[in-house]
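Same chain as my last thread, 144 residues:
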Amino acid sequence: MGRLITPLPRVGLTQGFGQQADSAAESAAERIVKYIPAEVVAFYLAALGIIQTVPNDQAAKKNGAYLVALIVGLIAAPLYIAILGRKDQPGKWLMIGWSIPAFLVWAYNLGGMFKVWEIHEPWIGSLLLLTITLVAGLLPIPRK
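reply #2:
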């Protein structure tokens, strides 16, 4: 499995119904993973862990670090896909576009700056995560 989405060939009638359903399910699962830049999520998780060690009496520094981590993630998510993808990669711009909301949903779900802004609700984060995962898995992949 590569790191970026590639369109699958069209499934013909000769392959049988079960094989077609298995290919579609595998394709959707792979797309979900690839729209969300795992390396950027890992960066954000590590950054949150480090920032949480800052003493609470240094709230301004802590809040600034949360903001920097969020901004770096927002920039790194599309940049990572843009650099990693081939110039002629089908669906590359779709993945770049989806990487930003996907990262925002993950970041919201994890807290960080959203807790500082007092807009973090774990149940909303979970619903957003489910929604973006569902929608990303259903998006058609452009072909060449």
